Amino acid sequence: MSTVSLSDQALRRPRRLVLAGMEGCTNCAACEVRGHGVCSALADKELERLSRAAVKVTVPAGHVFIEEGSAAHDFFNVTGGTVKLFKSLPDGRRQITGFVGVGHFLGLAVSDHYAFGAESVEQVQLCRFSRTKLETLMEEFPSIERRLLAEAANELVAAQDQMLLLGRKTAHERVASFLCGRLVEKYGECMPPAADIFLPMTRADIADFLGLTVETVSRTFSRLRREHLIGAGAGQDIHIPSVSRLEAIGSGDG
Amino acid sequence: MSTVSLSDQALRRPRRLVLAGMEGCTNCAACEVRGHGVCSALADKELERLSRAAVKVTVPAGHVFIEEGSAAHDFFNVTGGTVKLFKSLPDGRRQITGFVGVGHFLGLAVSDHYAFGAESVEQVQLCRFSRTKLETLMEEFPSIERRLLAEAANELVAAQDQMLLLGRKTAHERVASFLCGRLVEKYGECMPPAADIFLPMTRADIADFLGLTVETVSRTFSRLRREHLIGAGAGQDIHIPSVSRLEAIGSGDG
DNA sequence: TCGGGACAATGATATAAATCAAGAAATTAT
DNA sequence: ATAATTTCTTGATTTATATCATTGTCCCGA
Fold first, then answer.
1. Which positions of strand D lie within 7 Å of protein CB atoms?
2. Are residues B45 and B21 in the same domain?
3. FRET partner for A132 with CA separation of 20 to 30 A, picked from A63, A196, B89, B194?
4. Residue A3 within a domain
5. Of the candidates A144, A108, A162, A103, which has an alpha carbon nearest to the alpha carbon of residue B153?
């Protein structure tokens, strides 16, 4: 049995998939049991092939493992930890385009160079495939392609939400949206009325994700605290007494 | 879904697609001739099937043909004109996530409701498919799936560029990036040293795309004119005397 | 040819967020 | 533990862009 395994959530990510026939696992026990993370949407034979083609890698916190603009040889599946994806301007301004967690694929580049950089936020586990191998596998097993299409469609929706945030929301709304996003990441569809979240990233990362400065992010957290929209405890652990109130703020209904 | 935007880095747009065997067109003469907009990456037999499954629709300028949040029954391919995709906040703030032109697919929704709205900028021709039919066709012809994956990957790159623009660029840089994006749309890889473009959208649309106000967009055009980065002629026809200088501004190297 | 309505440009002023500056916590190293 | 860093918070001030207000320009229909 191969020791290399794709993340458990790899194929269960998108709650509802784009197209018929992709309903697959959205947390299926089967995946858990098999321990390979690639869900029932893929046949066992395909799973075998994927697993054998992957190399497991561990990246310590704070390491850039995809350099912006470098040759795009590999394709990754996150099996542990959180990764930040970013783009930069020549003078150092930086935009984090997303935080991706367990189960996400990355490296679906358009050209033969990565259009973005990737850095580990915490210690991260990855499954690495060569892209040429992935192409071969896709030829053989179209279900992989379907899985990637579903992932891409989900990311596209997230990207559009983020564009609305960056283009039109206030700092207050941005931070609220961000916290709601983390809640979705943690709870998916079944959102509790109150919740706690852990933020592995720094204020600076949050600022670069929300198109703000560290100071504004910090001030906004303080304001949310003052308004009792988040609990008093500072730092990385955030208590949210009323998820719905926060959602209202984040979606501009505040 | 959203396309376009194509700022700075997006200059290395689609041309080369994600995966082997997807080289196909993004405006190929063949498509023009065939008149269905579905590119050469698809075999003739598949094209036949797609064409027969599609209904051709003409939408006059300024019509919303996808209502935000409405049930996602259909899937479209743009065969003429320009479409704007957008998301709104309850109080009317709006973000245009992309302008999409001939050859683009749209409606690759994640759920059974569209996450965005779509409105024609000019008179638009569309091929409409039912999504269920598309699913059937995809089962039969995996190359369609591959084509959609390529499109989605391209849009994702464009979306990341747009996030960098919205989160970190100045008004000056945003407008320059926007113009460069239109140039890429028109000329693709082979960019002339100087060029003219026609902007079918209003200043208000440009503002909603760039996360600015109409006034700022107008002022920025005036500034670019004053700096001789664009020609003196006002309105929708823009002359760009030095494409490379504009690109430098747009990519933050100004 | 004229007149009305949308679109665009420009000026004056307001403001949200950035920048500059300093101290307080938290983390890591010694 | 204690020192050295880094991260976070808060305050004072500046600034880029938004907002408000006005005028000019381009269409299109009568």
1. 7-12, 16-21, 25-27
2. yes
3. A63
4. no
5. A108
Are B23 and B170 in contact by the 8 Å Cβ rule? The answer is no
Give the per-residue pLDDT at A111: 85
CA-based nearest distance A135→chain B, Å: 6
Backbone phi and psi for residue B85, each to the nearest 5 degrees, phi listed first: -105, 140
User: In the listed set A148, A163, A178, which residue is the last one of a domain according to the structure?
Assistant: A163
- For strand C, give the nucleotides within 7 A of a protein CB: 7-12, 16-21, 25-27
Asked if A112 and B16 touch (Cβ cutoff 8 Å), the reply is: yes
ipTM of the complex: 0.88
Given an 8 Å threshold on Cβ–Cβ distance, is A16 in contact with B156? no
Closest of A125, A231, A184, A135 to residue B149, by C-alpha: A135
Q: What's the domain count of chain B?
A: 2
Closest protein CA to C1' of nucleotide C8, residue = B218
From B165, B187, B218, the end of a domain falls on B165
- Residue B120 DSSP SS3: strand
Same domain, B68 and B157: yes
Radius of gyration (C-alpha) of chain B in whole angstroms: 18
What domain range includes position B45? 8-165
Residue A63 tokens read as 């390491």
Residues found in chain B: 254
Tokens of B46: 């598949």
Can you say how many angstroms the Cα of residue A86 is from the centroid of all Cα atoms in its chain?
A: 12
Contact between B36 and B54 under an 8 Å Cβ cutoff? The reply is: yes
| Per-residue model confidence as pLDDT tens digits over B9-25 | 222 223 222 222 222 33
Residues A153 and A180 placed together within one structural domain of the fold: no
For residue B48, the model assigns a pLDDT of 65
Position B194 pLDDT exceeds 70: yes
Q: What is the mean pLDDT of chain B?
A: 82
Angstrom CA distances, B8 to B1, B88, B147, B157, B164, stand at: 20, 26, 24, 11, 10
The stretch B76-85 carries a mean pLDDT of: 95
Establish if A29 belongs to a structural domain.
no
